[in-house]
Amino acid sequence: MGVVAAVLLMAGVWASLDAMRLVTADRGSVRGTLTVEECDGWTCRGAFAPEDAAGGAPVEAALEAPVPHAAGEKVPVVLWPGADEVLRTGTAGVLRAWSPFAGALVLAAPVIAAGLGKRRTAWAAGLSGAALLGAAFVTL
What we know:
By secondary structure, this protein is α+β, with helices and mostly antiparallel strands.
């Protein structure tokens, strides 16, 4: 059961890693602002304007947002390389990037408790995952 818990946690880290690198790294990423034009469901679309003048003219971009933004709102984002998709930056972006790992912590908690018999560790993992998910939701 220890292997199952470890695989769950590694999968969560792996799923979070690309977004986390992009949100936190300054090298090789195009940062800017997204001026929201419309939101439908889980996606907000708008014009992405890079911070530096070398980034080029504003382009249409999409932001995955569980909480819709108001039209005209400016959101600090980073552009995925080679795509029209953007991610939030700052605290909200970091917490959103770690959401898959937080879910893995919550999923691994019962495995740790039942399979390994480590109830305190399971409670710590489950509560920290739930706290991380809650913080990500609040900051969006």
